[in-house]
Write a structure and sequence with these properties.
Length: about 375
């Protein structure tokens, strides 16, 4: 099997645009259909084909409880609504007094959608189809290709109608989409790990739920399992320590441009979202505009090499001011079994290796000035 596909999938998950959850819903839906071993899946030459209606069905099931929830569960950045949110909430309102999500699912799979909500359901289905095919299908894979629809293709087959409005109606009336066969095979093998059903986190949570006699929820366990020991207060305290060191130094230079700056952000060299590391060596002063461009990207090996003198300058300042903490943190994170003697060369080399691993093996986006 082509190992490049696994790398591309990792890149897509980590680096493709994350302005909405559409990308995640698309990947989750395709993987679920494959894991269901749907009999509607067909193969022709080097592509595998699926009814788009099956994907619409998955999105109905994914987004219904999210949009029904009294707790706001953000699905899009900013104040904007999901493209199909207003149509979806009409369905939710229609079912609110007749059984909610469970009744809707039962109608979709067995009884058929009631005549009185046909028009609402048609509007929602069409909006979901438009959203899926014109947004995530179009843009997914842009981190690995400049082409639109680089992985997903779709065809608007002729509508076939249907007397009963149910899941078969969706399958028969919304065309098909396809993916390369190598992605299909990768999703067959790794799909449950990507989606989480067989992930360590999910299995851990599932065990705890069963061991409790199902008195706690998987969501509760996952919240606890994923909890970071580093609080926002600790993040701010570390930045405060760092700023006090810089204030004593006087002149501050942006670590990435080398320019003298009067105001600055204290940036995580390796982003906190990627590596939950609040060590002082991982904090560096950066011009705010540069920091905004960097965001969750990983500094390239070349950039670290170019700026290593300035990085080392700040590390030495921290070592002078907070020697016990600095030496312990950098020993564990970057020096390993190597002694603190000649630590600068060892630490820079290990930092470069860590960044290269995150970029080349984990699929995180490389950052250069």
């Amino acid at each position: 099997m082509n190992t490049d596909v696994f790398f591309n999938i990792s890149k897509i998950i980590e680096r493709d645009s994350k302005t909405t959850t559409y990308k995640f819903a698309l990947l989750r839906g395709v993987i679920d259909i494959i894991q269901d071993n749907s009999p509607f899946i067909s193969r022709s030459d080097d592509r595998v084909y699926f009814p788009t209606g099956l994907l619409i069905d998955k999105w109905l099931l994914y987004y219904y409880p999210i949009l029904e929830s009294l707790t706001v569960i953000p699905q899009i950045n900013g104040q904007a609504q999901l493209a199909f949110e207003s149509q979806f909430k009409k369905i939710i309102d229609a079912y609110s007094e007749t059984g909610g999500f469970s009744a809707f699912n039962n109608d979709l799979r067995n009884k058929g959608i009631p005549q009185k909500v046909h028009s609402i359901f048609f509007d929602l289905s069409k909006k979901l189809h438009h959203t899926i095919t014109k947004m995530p299908m179009k843009y997914i894979g842009r981190s690995i290709s400049d082409d639109y629809y680089s992985i997903f293709n779709f065809e608007n087959d002729k509508r076939k109608g249907g007397k009963i409005v149910d899941i078969e109606y969706l399958i028969n009336n919304f065309g098909s989409f396809s993916i390369p066969v190598e992605y299909y095979e990768a999703f067959q093998i790794l799909g449950s790990f990507i989606n989480g059903q067989d992930s360590i986190f999910f299995k851990w949570a599932e065990f705890s739920v069963n061991a409790s006699g199902k008195n706690i929820s998987i969501e509760k366990v996952l919240t606890e399992v994923l909890k970071s020991p580093i609080t926002e207060r600790e993040l701010q305290e570390s930045k405060k320590i760092y700023k006090s060191i810089l204030n004593r130094e006087g002149k501050v230079f942006c670590v990435w441009t080398g320019k003298s700056i009067t105001s600055y952000d204290v940036d995580h060299l390796i982003p906190f979202s990627v590596w939950k590391n609040n060590d002082l060596w991982n904090l560096l002063p950066s011009q705010a505009s540069i920091n905004n461009k960097k965001r969750d990207k990983i500094p390239s090996v070349e950039l670290i090499e170019e700026q290593k003198d300035l990085i080392l300058h700040y590390w030495e300042l921290i070592n002078e001011s907070q020697p016990q903490r600095f030496q312990k943190e950098i020993q564990v994170a970057l020096l390993g079994k190597k002694t603190f003697h000649d630590w600068q060369k060892t630490a820079i080399k290990q930092l470069q290796q860590s960044c290269e691993y995150l970029i080349s093996n984990r699929g995180y986006e490389e950052w250069k000035i």
